[in-house]
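Box 3.1 A note on notation
Throughout this textbook, protein chains are presented in two layers. The first layer is the amino acid sequence; the second is a C-alpha cell string describing backbone geometry. Keep the layers aligned when reading.
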Amino acid sequence: MKIYKLILAAPALLAPLLAGAEEWIIPRTTYYITAEQQKMPDFPAPPEPGSKADRADLSAVFAMQRSLKPGQCERAKMAAHADFENFFGDISPFPAPLPAEAAAIFRRVKTETDGAAADIKDKFKRKRPFLRDPGLKPCLGRIGGLAYPSGHATISRLLALMLADLVPERRAQFLARADEAALDRVIGGVHHPADIEAGKALADRLYPRYRKSGKFAADMKTLRGLLLKSKVKK
C-alpha cells in the first residue's frame, strides 16, 4: 500500500523539478568589480507588457522569422554557445588555437558579465518571445532563461570592446561582429529586438567599470602580450 501511494504521488513530486528543468542557474562572481558595482537600479525596463512598443517588439520577431534567408538560422545555431571562439574565432587577433591564458581570461569575463546580466533578467523577468506567443517557432529551440537583456548581446559586445581596446584600428570590425551575434538571437526566435539593444547598453555600462579594476587591467596586459602581430592591422 505504501509503495502504491508513492507511485501515485511521484508525478506530483516530480512536477516542480520537471517544470524547472529549463531554468538556468547563473553564478555570480566579483573578480573584477564588486556586487555593488554590478548593480544598476536605473537600468531601463523593457517595454510595458501589452503596450504598443511591446507588441511591436514581438511582431518584429515574427517578421524576422518570415524573412529568414538561407543559412541565417544555421549561423545563429553556430553561435548559440556564447564564447570568444564562436563570436570572434575567425577574425581573432590571437594565435590559433587560442592561447590557454587568453581563453581563461575570456571565460572569467564572461562569467562575471553573465551574472550582471542575470541580475537584471531576474528583476524584469521578461519571457522569451516563444513563451508569449505559441505561434512562434524558434529555430534555436525552446531554450531556458529569461529574455531581457540578452546575455549573448551583452557578452559579445563586451568582448568586442576589449578587442577594440587591444587593436583599435579594427574596432569597427569587432563591434560589427558583436552586432551580428546579437541579431542572431532575434533570428533564432529567442529574443526580442529590445532585448539585444539592452544587452549592448549593459555592456557599454559594464565595460568602463571593468576598466577601473586593477585585475582587469592586468588581464588586458596579458592579452596584449598574446596578440599575433600579423593580425593586429587589417
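The mean pLDDT is 90. The domain at 23-231 is CATH 1.20.144.10 (Vanadium-containing Chloroperoxidase; domain 1).
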